[in-house]
Amino acid sequence: MTKALAVVIVISAFLAGCDNGPKDAGPVPTGRSSHSSVTAGGEGTVSTGGSTSSGEETAGAALCNEEVMALRIVDQGGAAGTIRTVWGVRSTSPEPCVSKGYPGMDFHAASGWLDTQVERGTGFPDIEQAPSQITIGNGKSLYFISYWNDVDTAAGPCVQFDRVKVTLPDNFTSAEHAAIGCLNPESVRVGPVTDTPPTS
After folding, report:
1. How far is residue 141's CA from residue 67's CA, in Å, rounded to a whole number?
2. pTM of the predicted model, to two decimals?
3. Which of 57, 111, 124, 197 has a 20 to 30 Å separation from 98 between CA atoms?
4. Do residues 139 and 33 lie in contact, with contact meaning Cβ atoms separated by under 8 Å?
5. 26-64 b/e (C-beta count within 10 Å ≥ 16 → b)
């Protein structure tokens, strides 16, 4: 009887732990604007906030994480109310790291982090490829593309933001980047991480 009870407790604890696993996240600011932009150039800083990412489990070499990666914006543009951003995350570790899957994103508004739930790999041809495992060496970068709407829509108003948070696949802490813009929190889409810079 005691052994059976112990098994039930272990299974219950395991299932409870599954509820807190990786997910897509990202804060977005509140406000209205007809244009969204993120400052390119400088690299982001580490945040230990509650944002988490979604991705696929990676075994073997060390997992790429925000402690050894520096976030930056490689390119940004848009038309017809949609902003496309190419993100670069450069390794600062002397050892290679691996990554596979989709990053999480969040945006910071006047009301705080928005806890944005991104859509993964849908809506645009350049983010619809399947994830594959990549290995990044020192000084090299991984890349991903994000899209969002920067106009009011039936889904809700455009929200002003002042910071962006990115969580790499299978991580629970995030890198932050100073940013100013506007987006519809329901419109954020991301592609999988890759080891080659996407074309414009």
Report:
1. 14
2. 0.72
3. 124
4. no
5. bbbbbeebeebbbeeeeebebbebebbbbbeebeeeebb
Report the Cα 153 to chain-centroid distance in Å: 23
The one-digit pLDDT tens for each residue of the chain (200 residues) are 444 433 333 333 333 343 333 333 333 332 333 333 444 445 544 433 333 333 344 346 799 988 888 999 999 998 889 999 999 999 988 999 999 999 999 999 999 999 999 999 998 999 999 999 999 998 999 999 999 999 988 878 899 999 999 999 999 989 999 989 999 999 999 999 999 998 86
User: Is the sign of the CA dihedral 111, 77, 150, 36 positive or negative?
Assistant: positive
Sign of the C-alpha dihedral computed for residues 161, 162, 168 and 172 taken in this order: negative
Strand ranges (E), the chain: 45-47, 69-79, 82-91, 97-99, 104-109, 112-113, 119-120, 134-136, 141-149, 159-167, 174-183, 189-190
- Closest to 146 measured CA to CA, from 174, 172, 127: 127
